[in-house]
Amino acid sequence: MDNNYLALRVKELRNQKGMSQEFLAEESGLSLRTIQRIEKGESNPTGESLKRLANALNVSPDELIDWSVKEDKKYLTYLNLSALLFLVFPLLGVLIPFILWTSKKGKIKNSNKLGKDLINFEITWTILLFFIPIVLFTISKIGLTDQITLSTFFMVIGFLYVANLILILINTLRINNDKEVIYRPRFKFLK
């Protein structure tokens, strides 16, 4: 049981219901000091204490505690494949995986690492997608090289799209084969 999650959850529910710690202690039959320790994450409450807290907060015990981290390869696959929305619009390749990742963060095994790696890669890719054309245009304008052709520009952009697509598909296979995902290059924007 994660004491920090329980501490945050009890405090959040107590505040939502407009209860003071004293009132919660009174309603649950637990001591004020016990409530304070639980909310600070210093105490690992017994099953009976959890049941009393849940009753006083008018929730089920399952709503207080995240009992386990589940394995869900299908979800990890969907999370990974959601980055393919970069094909529609580049920022969707960041936004949709971010939304999916934050909705299940910490609840599905390996989702934190996959989510962070994927989002960091997609942010890096998006920056490169917009930065490289600017660099090519600047190099061409200041005369460091002969005129960069439009075909060169589209080849670079096409290469970036293909590289992104291939990495997402390879990592989908890696997820299905229970192997660690590898996204390179990526800067660590999310740690």
Task: From the structure above, extract its key features.
single chain; elongated; 191 residues; 9 helices; mainly alpha
What features would you describe in this structure?
With 191 residues, the protein is mainly alpha-helical. The protein is 66% helix and 0% strand. The chain has nine helices and no strands. The protein has helices spanning 3-16, 21-28, 32-40, 47-57, 61-64, 73-81, 92-104, 111-142, 150-176. Helix 2 packs across helix 3 (32-40) and helix 8 (111-142) runs antiparallel to helix 9 (150-176). The longest helix is centred in the middle third of the chain and has 32 residues, at 111-142. It is elongated, with a radius of gyration of 24 Å. The model has no long low-confidence stretch (mean pLDDT 86).
Quaternary assembly: single chain
Count of extended strands: 0
Low-confidence stretches: none
Shape: elongated
> In this structure, how is the largest beta sheet organized?
none
Q: Structural class from helices and strands? A: mainly alpha
Spell the H/E element sequence.
HHHHHHHHH
What's the rounded overall pLDDT mean? 86
Quick overview:
This protein is mainly α and 191 residues long.
